[in-house]
C-alpha cells in the first residue's frame, strides 16, 4: 500500500467525520431536564421558586414567521403568602425562553 493512498483515505475520513458531527449537533435537542434547569435558574433571579414542571416531549411552535421545536413548562413561586404560577415556552435546541405567561 502506498503512503499517499493511506493519507488521502485518512484525510477524507476525518473530513467526513467532522461534517457528520456538525450535522448531528445542529439537529440535536437539549434534554427537557436541562431546559427546565435553565428556566429555574432564570426564575430564581427574581426570588425563590416552590415548584416546577416540564413536558418531556418537544413539539412544534410558530412565532411570527419563525418555526421552533419547543418544550412547555411551568414554575410556581411564593409571593406575599400567595402562590404565583407561570408557564413558559423554551426553544428545545438552545433552551432560550421564548414566552412567559402568568396564570391568573
Number of strands: 5
Distance between the termini: 74 Å
Tertiary shape: elongated
**What's the total helix number?**
2
Radius of gyration from the alpha-carbon trace, in angstroms: 21 Å
What is the H-and-E element order? Answer: HHEEEEE
Write down the overall mean pLDDT. Answer: 88
As a percent range, the share of strand residues is: 35-45%
Helicity level:
25-40%
Helical/strand content category: alpha+beta
Low-confidence spans = none
Multimeric organization = single chain
The largest β sheet comes out as: 5 strands, antiparallel
What does this structure look like?
The protein is α+β, with helices and mostly antiparallel strands. 37% of the residues lie in helices and 38% in strands. It contains two helices and five strands, in the order H-H-E-E-E-E-E. The protein has helices spanning 3-27, 32-44; strands at 51-54, 59-63, 66-79, 82-91, 97-103. Strands 1, 2, 3, 4 and 5 form a five-stranded antiparallel β-sheet that branches. A hairpin with a 2-residue loop joins strand 3 (66-79) and strand 4 (82-91). The longest helix is centred in the first third of the chain and has 25 residues, at 3-27. It starts with a helix and ends with a strand.
Amino acid at each position: 500500500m502506498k503512503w499517499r493512498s493511506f493519507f488521502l483515505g485518512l484525510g477524507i475520513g476525518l473530513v467526513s467525520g467532522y461534517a457528520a458531527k456538525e450535522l448531528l449537533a445542529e439537529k440535536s435537542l437539549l434534554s427537557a431536564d436541562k431546559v427546565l434547569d435553565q428556566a429555574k435558574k432564570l426564575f430564581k433571579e427574581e426570588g425563590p421558586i416552590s415548584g416546577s414542571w416540564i413536558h418531556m416531549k418537544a413539539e412544534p411552535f410558530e412565532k411570527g414567521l419563525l418555526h421552533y421545536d419547543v418544550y412547555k413548562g411551568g414554575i410556581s413561586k411564593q409571593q406575599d403568602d400567595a402562590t404565583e404560577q407561570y408557564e413558559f415556552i423554551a426553544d428545545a435546541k438552545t433552551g432560550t425562553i421564548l414566552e412567559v405567561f402568568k396564570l391568573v
